[in-house]
Amino acid sequence: MDFELRRAREKLEKEQKERKEKAKLKLNRERKAKEEAKSQREAIEAAQRSRRLDAAEAQLKADQQMQENALAGRGIMFYRVLEAVPYLGIGDKIKLPPSCFTELSDQGAFDKGPMYFHLSVVHQEVSSDTHATDDENLRNTHSGVLEFTADEGSVALPPHVWHNLFPGETQKTSLIEVRYVWLPKGTYAKLQPERIGFSDLPNHKAILETGLRQHATLSQGDILTVNYGELAYKLQVLELKPSSSISVLETDIEVDIVGPDSASERTDQHVLNPLVLGNSESGIVGEGNYMYYKFSIDNDTLGRIATGDARIEVKIEAETDGGDTDLYISRHPLIFPTRHQHEWSSHDIGSKTLILSSRDEKLGAGTYSVGVYGFKGTSKFNISASVQDDYKRKVGQQAVSSSSPMEMDTVECRNCKHYIPSRTIALHEAYCSRHNIVCRHAGCGVVLRVEEAKNHVHCDKCGQAFQQGEMEKHMKVFHEPLHCACGIVLEKEQMVSNPVEWLSMRFIDLICIF
């Protein structure tokens, strides 16, 4: 009996314990469900609150943007996001699609004078390993408009605008924010060349003014490229007044040009090294590069040259066998002579000399620039400019010419055409016919040794005579077609001798009328 009671009591206690555990588990589940529901409700409320805040912030930004656009555009509200594409143009004028013309015209933008636009890069989503740089904050500039012929959804940018928005980058697709703005007329600009040499250009401010005629705007931080012949100078815009972005159309601007930073100086920059008459300077130039020197001719020296008593001799002595140079000279204001712009030149292989004498009509008192161009390989050289006395040479020439060969008993050699005393003509002709050959090329007639004749050749195009080893360089220098940026193709001699004839016609197409 006691055993049955004990078993019943144990069973009851077990059932009560199980019921308590189930009740406890139920309470825990209900508590967790309530907590999860509360968390979900709070998350939903937070998301809704965040969306409301984002919407309010976006609306606020949109309102501010509209106000800024209206203020910046003086009542004209124009804003587009377009895909940037490059085009070969001059200056800072962009090309917009035709739909922009309609939108601007409907708002009367054309009645308010020249149109200006603020351009900025739309930063797209990038990978986590790409970090932003300080340059991104500078990726904005201003421009004018050239025409409305771009494809819909795109904006065509000239090199000046492209390089200021994407410095050192070649992007395939880029979105540009284009916004119409009003700009004040500029009164002051401070510019800094990236390298030395720009201030040495004659009338460099006039050259800068000519370059700015192709621009409608300037923005602080922009890099402005000024071309002078084959040379291109980059100037950074440091300061502008009355604002950080100005219009340069129909206004007088005071321009200050400060010197470049010393840290920016490089060995490949064009610098005029002084060349003292009578002294020699050593140098080294790589293939395709220039080294420049300058010397001066005063009035006294010019007087001696004009009377034929002296001449200027510019000489290059090569120190290396593997390289070769070309020599170019110009009188200022052409300060940096090049292959296509110069007044005197020498293309001899190895050492070479240029003589400036009274027969040169371009010779005058002033400063002259000497350009040493690396034609092949790396060349070490010594260069000198000196005044050579011509008095003794003139006297010797006059003494030789005082007796005419016809006054003596002479006979013309049938081979070399020289006048030889009649008593030795037979011996001379026998020797001359065995050892000498006369060049039969029209207009040449030079007498050559038999062993030298095989190296004597004439150019098929111009007829000049050269050694066989010089012909390859002659063809490359004088007869290789040169492609100008304007599209014309000329040989070097045509481009150098009379550039005005064709340049005056080509420049008309390059100058924008807007």
Automatic annotation (TrEMBL):
Biased composition (Basic and acidic residues): 1-21, 27-43
GO CC annotations, alphabetized: VCP-NPL4-UFD1 AAA ATPase complex
Domain of life per record: Eukaryota
GO biological process: ERAD pathway; ubiquitin-dependent protein catabolic process
Region listing for Disordered, in residue ranges: 1-43
Bilayer-spanning residue ranges: none
Residue ranges of domain Ubiquitin fusion degradation protein UFD1 N-terminal subdomain in the record: 88-184, 185-260
GO terms for MF: polyubiquitin modification-dependent protein binding
Protein name: Uncharacterized protein
Naturally occurring in which organism (per UniProt): Carya illinoinensis (Pecan)
